[in-house]
């Protein structure tokens, strides 16, 4: 089987989700990251239409977006399917997958962008290990130069970050309810499992949020499917912003 070529950027939770799917299905792959902030024009130069990652080359064709990649992986390797065969259950999984991709994912992304702006040292932790097409020593040498450019692109204000934190309890409750209903964290993980787990994995990088996530079923799901999520954001949130999360 020809290797899948997965293209992302450092720290991207949708890329982590697809990478975990590839490993679960046993599909050979190589991951290559583009520099954050420069990835949009570079994707166009590589023939992709989207401005966001993940994108991939699968069996000679370009596939863009984590949900489209999920379906292409099931076509490529039917074993260990990511989407259930039963139509009713598939519809439930696809709705959770859509919600995780379009809504929950955005909450974590905005919080991460705000967090990186307020913890200068955190950016380097998301680039280790590096999937950039550069020697590790050169990545470490360039990071101090690239950090101001990358952080300048993360335009999330205090009000937006505060609002995202307020959404978290309801979103985490929805995940925990899906686990209790057997739609998530079953014996055979599905597409929604990976989407949700990667986003919770990003949230788990926050020192402020980790203690609240650990006792939840959502936290257990992330630890099972993405146990080695790279990155750490130190304490950054004012205590009065943090809602009851556990």
Largest sheet: 4 strands, mixed
- Secondary structure class reads alpha+beta
**Model regions low in confidence, pLDDT < 50 over at least 5 residues:** none
Please identify the top-level CATH class of the largest domain: Mainly Alpha
Q: Largest beta sheet: what is the strand line-up? A: 2-1-3-4
First-residue to last-residue Cα separation: 44 Å
CATH level-3 fold name of the largest domain = Glutathione S-transferase Yfyf (Class Pi), Chain A, domain 2
Morphology: globular
Number of strands: 4
Overall pLDDT confidence: 94
Kindly state the percentage of residues in helix. 40-55%
Q: How many helices?
A: 10
> Taking Cα atoms only, what radius of gyration do you get, to the nearest Å?
18 Å
> How many structural units, i.e. domains?
2
How would you characterize the overall build of this protein?
- β3 (55-58) and β4 form a beta hairpin.
- α1 packs across α8 and α8 packs across α10.
- The chain folds into two domains: 4-76, Glutaredoxin, CATH 3.40.30; 87-241, Glutathione S-transferase Yfyf (Class Pi), Chain A, domain 2 (Up-down Bundle).
- It has 246 residues and is α+β, with helices and mostly antiparallel strands.
- A four-stranded mixed β-sheet has the order 2-1-3-4, with helices on one face.
- The protein has helices spanning 13-25, 39-45, 66-76, 87-118, 122-125, 136-152, 158-180, 191-203, 210-213, 217-225; strands at 4-8, 29-33, 55-58, 61-64.
- It is built from ten helices and four strands; from the N terminus they run βαβαββαααααααα.
- The protein is globular and about 45 Å long.
């Amino acid at each position: 089987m020809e290797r899948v070529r997965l293209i992302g950027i450092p720290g991207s939770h949708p890329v982590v989700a697809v990478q975990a799917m590839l490993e679960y299905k046993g599909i050979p792959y190589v991951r290559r990251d583009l520099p954050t902030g420069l990835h949009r024009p570079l994707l166009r130069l590589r023939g992709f239409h989207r401005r966001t990652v993940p994108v991939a080359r699968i069996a000679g064709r370009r596939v863009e977006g984590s949900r489209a990649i999920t379906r292409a992986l099931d076509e490529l390797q039917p074993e260990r399917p990511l989407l259930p065969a039963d139509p009713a259950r598939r519809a439930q999984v696809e709705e959770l997958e859509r919600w995780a991709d379009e809504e929950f994912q955005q909450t974590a992304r905005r919080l991460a962008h705000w967090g990186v702006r307020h913890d200068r040292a955190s950016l380097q932790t998301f680039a280790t290990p590096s999937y950039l097409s550069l020697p590790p020593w050169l990545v470490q040498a360039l990071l101090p130069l690239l950090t101001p450019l990358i952080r300048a692109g993360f335009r999330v204000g205090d009000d937006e970050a505060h609002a995202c934190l307020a959404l978290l309890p309801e979103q985490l409750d929805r995940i925990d309810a899906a686990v209790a209903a057997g739609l998530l964290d079953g014996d055979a993980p599905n597409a929604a499992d990976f989407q949700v787990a990667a986003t919770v994995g990003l949230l788990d990088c926050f020192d402020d949020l980790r203690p609240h996530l650990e006792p939840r079923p959502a936290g257990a799901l992330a630890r099972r499917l993405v146990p080695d999520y790279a990155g750490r954001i130190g304490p950054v949130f004012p205590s009065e912003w943090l809602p009851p999360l556990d």
